[in-house]
Write a structure and sequence with these properties.
single chain; 396 residues; alpha/beta; Nucleotidyltransferase, domain 5; 8-stranded mixed sheet; 6-stranded mixed sheet; 19% strand; binds adenosine-5'-diphosphate
């Protein structure tokens, strides 16, 4: 089956066409600046990337251009739209309504709309993507794959905040967690690589990218994760603060004469390793280069980031009552031996021994702990698009 995977943001749309039988990517691309001016880039499998400016007043137009790119007589990868068997949509927030992926119908769309106040930037954009596909590809089955679904197995003591219970009852304020598709895919793959039974295992997944989160997976089910009601909680990220004392918000409001919205912007866009470094960069390649040159801000940012990861691993080892496997994934987790080393060297209390030579790996599956390490540590590249394509193929 040929599955079109769509990840729709407010002004961008990432897409991949995947053959679910061979799991090969047939073509992939990105529409950017939707509603502004518009640019589409497309890479047919094994060929060079094609980029062109094209007016994209809205997402309908963007989807039309995606179909045009896929079916282009010269550079396209399919002869006609009818070759696309199904569409898989990444949906950020499923609230408590969705514990797994589902075939999209009007009830599902309504249920996604209902939880849109939990992800006001993301869910409306995801819904626009669904509507645009319905219009341009009527009759093609579609599946919604939720970032939150994998974490719905968390027990109450892990997902509740220490707030009046009425906040949960009235507004469903709780920890939901994100990157679920990645945590599910990577934890399963890590069990496979480690040769342990997924249904009988204790795994910690460190998804360290621009957005970053850790999860504790017991017997194939998520029992805790670091992101919360929104993706702002938990680890220090590229530009997001992660955990802070909530009182910080009022304090900054008063000191800097800012509105709550402005402070939230500071926490989301100007904090994290970017803010900690003194606005040097949110990109770990820059931060590592700075660190090695002795830049104090870069060192501070990387060390504080790693310490937070270390604390989450410690708390999840406790939550799991032990750990068999730790997996590093996403941009930083897959590509930074530097960051992995700083973290793993401080896990000797778990009996972890890093194999420094094996750790010199970028973006491919590899065991990076020594043979005598009590916990196996892996690099496992994540593949959220493939996971979405798999779910979609299975459901249609
Ligand atoms: P997201 O999907 O959240 O945008 P990614 O998982 O793609 O993020 O991760 C992006 C981050 O990965 C970049 O900001 C960069 O910091 C980091 N990264 C990518 N390549 C490398 C590398 N070779 N060394 C260190 N960090 C890297």
């Amino acid at each position: 089956m040929k599955i079109l995977v769509i990840n729709c943001g407010s002004s961008s749309l990432k897409f991949q066409l995947i053959d679910s039988d061979t799991e090969a990517v047939i073509g992939k691309g990105l529409c950017e600046r939707i509603g502004i001016d518009g640019r589409i880039s497309f890479t047919p499998e094994g060929k060079d990337k094609i980029t062109k400016d094209a007016a994209m007043p809205d997402h309908n137009e963007a989807i039309k251009l995606v179909i045009e790119a896929l079916t282009d007589p010269e550079t396209g990868v399919v002869k006609s739209l009818s070759e696309i068997d199904a569409v898989g949509h990444r949906i950020v927030h499923g609230g408590e309504n969705f514990t797994k992926s589902v075939v999209i119908n009007e009830d599902v769309i309504k249920a996604i709309e209902e939880v849109s106040d939990l992800a006001p930037l993301h869910n409306p954009a995801n819904l626009i993507g669904i509507r645009a596909c319905q219009k341009i590809m009527p009759g093609v089955p579609m599946v919604a794959v939720f970032d939150t679904a994998f974490h719905q197995t968390m027990p109450e003591d892990a997902y509740l905040y220490g707030l009046p219970y009425s906040c949960y009852e009235k507004y469903k304020i709780r920890r939901y967690g994100f990157h679920g598709t990645s945590h599910a895919y990577v934890s399963k793959k890590a069990a496979e690589l480690a040769g342990v039974d997924y249904e009988n295992s204790k795994i910690i997944v460190c998804h360290l990218g621009n957005g970053a989160s850790v999860s504790a997976v017991k017997n194939g089910k998520c029992i805790d994760t670091s992101m919360g009601l929104t993706p702002l909680e938990g680890l220090i990220m590229g530009t997001r603060s992660g955990d802070v004392d909530p009182s910080v918000i009022e304090f900054i409001e008063q000191k800097e004469n800012l509105s709550t919205k402005e402070v939230m912007n500071l926490l989301n866009k100007k904090s994290g390793v970017f803010g900690l470094s003194g606005d040097v960069s949110s990109d770990f390649r820059d931060l590592e280069a700075g660190y090695l040159k002795g830049d104090e801000g870069c060192k501070r940012a990387v060390d504080t980031f790693c310490y937070r990861v270390l604390k989450y691993i410690g708390s999840y080892a406790a939550a799991l009552n032990g750990v068999d496997v730790i997996a590093f994934t996403a941009g930083v987790g897959e590509n930074s031996p530097f960051v992995r080393k700083i973290i793993a060297e401080r896990l000797s209390y778990l009996g972890i021994n890093l194999d420094e030579k094996a750790n010199d790996v970028h973006g491919k599956e590899q065991l990076i702990s020594t043979a005598d390490s009590k916990v196996k540590v892996f690099v496992v590249p994540t593949n959220e698009e493939l996971a979405i394509a798999r779910d979609t193929a299975a459901l249609v």
